[in-house]
Amino acid sequence: MIKRLLYIFVGLIVIGGLLAWYGYRYVTVRYEYEAVRVNVGSGIDADALETLLCDSLGKEFGSHVSEIWKWRGGKPERAHGSYLVKPGETAFRLAMRLRGGAQDPVKVTVPNFRSTERVIDAIASDFEFSADSLQAAFDRMLAEKDIDSRCLPAFIMPDTYQYYWTMTPEAFAASMYKHWESYWTEARRAKAAKLGLTPIEVSILASIVEEESAKTDERPIIARLYLNRLSKQMRLQADPTVKYAVGDPTLKRILNVHLATPSPYNTYLIDGLPPSPLRVVDKQTLSAVLDAPEHNYLYMCAKEDFSGYHNFAKTNAEHAANARRYHAALNQRKIK
Fold first, then answer.
1. Hey, where are the domains in the chain?
2. Which of 31, 185, 258, 313 is the residue whose CA sits 20 to 30 A from 43?
3. Which secondary-structure segment (H or E) carries 82?
4. Which alpha helices (DSSP H) does the chain contain, by range?
5. If one looks up domain 27-100 in CATH, what number appears?
6. DSSP β-bridge partners for residue 37
7. Sign of CA pseudo-dihedral 167, 44, 96, 91
8. Residue pLDDT, tens place only, 289-310
9. CA dist., res. 333 & res. 188, Å (int)
């Protein structure tokens, strides 16, 4: 009888040991593939979550995570979020992160594309919200602050940020406004005021400068040229504003028919600055305006070598000579 009990006892120990070993192996199985981000949307249920995990992480590892998550009382609404799963992470640790909603922040790069719509699309691609909902949130925010909605590009600050994927569009819009306020320090506002511009007007002028030249080293020169024209109450006569008015930023040659386009953005027809920025601008271009070096240039024309740089002139006669050379080069290349 004692011998029989001893066998049973030893058997139970072996079985218990095997179960413990299996359980240990089960919860410590590690993710072995490349890092992947798993986005758990709102309203997901347990079955859909398991499918998502298996599809994203592989069936074996994903099912382990799902079973542990269920075993530990995970609730779908708590798992809502974005999780970066790196090689070596255990099924148990990921299950506990899902259980507690311990999501990872997302690196969001806000670009300075020409099209504000493209910028918003790019931003929304890193979040759960849609581009339309973000546009609506921006519109509501600007309306509440009594700011012309066309001036939205001035309040989008290109940079790389960290946010949570579950952030609301309203929170993101508010965050952009805070970054705008942070940029416009007392010192920068004083520089703008010295130029006779508001922060939004600096963005408007910077957008023209950025469209005028892709060469960052000549943007400060262009900025001062336009400031010189403003100070003399001359029309800016900036070609990018004509392209904007026409609705074709790809125009290679500005013709008289384009110059005659009626628009509050056509600076060949209006005095001063257009009503809003032509695009989202880089912070470096804002600095090009605020710190524009002094000079006496009033005119500019693209160089005839098509290098992307410009010839600058102080008088209309010098400018006319530069323009003739450029138009001759256009004709030679049959650019219409």
1. 27-100, 106-183, 186-295
2. 31
3. strand 81-85
4. 2-28, 46-57, 59-71, 76-79, 91-100, 116-124, 131-144, 169-183, 186-194, 199-212, 219-231, 239-246, 256-259, 283-290, 316-332
5. 3.30.1490
6. 84
7. negative
8. 999 999 999 999 989 898 989 9
9. 44
